[in-house]
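As a next step, the fold was encoded as tokens, giving this record:
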Amino acid sequence: MRRRSLLAVPAALLAAPAQTVMAQTDWPTRPVRIVVPFAAGGSTDVSTRLLAPRVQQILGQPVVIENRGGAGGTIGSDAVAKGPRDGSVFLMGTISTHVLAVGLYGDRLPYDPERDFVAVAPTVMVPICITVHPSMGVNDLAGLIALLKANPGKYAYGTGGAGGSAHIGAVAFLNAIGAEATHVPYRGSAPMLADMLAGQVTLCFDTPALIAPHHAAGKLRCLAVATESRSGLMPDVPTAAQAGLPGYKAYSWFGLFAPAGTPDAIVTKMNGAIRTALLDPATAARLVEQDLPPIAEGSPAEFAAFLRRELAEWVPVVRASGATAN
């Protein structure tokens, strides 16, 4: 009896991992929660809600979106980092939560973007565009660059907030052209846009979705989009490279993350669901309509490598800008 009992122990130990693997293969067996670490209605929220119905169909379980904003997205991100590792919760992270926050918060950032998360899948890339008020008197990017270089510190530019992707993109632009301008940070893009339309600030950096209607109406003039492709909302606007500034880029990106320790089988399955949803013609079309170009390629390993490159490229720019989190 004693021998049989001792022999039964290894068998039981072998059975437990097998049951765990089976549970991971069957995942999900209950609703999946995706935390959006920003308020409802923003680009991160909109893109997640456009993806969710198709992901829900693929997984066969409800996908619940939870908005948990505050502190530039770090509150919701930290909650997920400390959340369950069973595939019940994911984070729709961004360049702000996983790259720029490292430079803004330094040692005060309550999580490590690489250590505390596992990269699941990228979702969309949002371009930043360079826009002027007609009163500035420039018609193209070359004209703006010449004006700024000839008048160091004379002009100001607006963004939706200090330390965001638009602000850091503006810093990178000024560094690229060797010019100086004063940053005017607003509490969001809406008040910045109001001042732009009124001519109280004459240069801004923001997304095409915000600028396109006013560019079309002639109230603002978008000079360049800082990604490799033109914006579908403003096909007449050249890329920065086409406008004479090759190598300059400014953008935001969104992507799904899980708490570190989430089983590989779950991460792989969720990656497949996200990629399938992004390749769905109807879903992709709705994203493009909102100027949220989908990124339909990228394994978890490739997304993790992309994150490492982004940290290496942008964190030094954030620190050099002097921007900090209040």
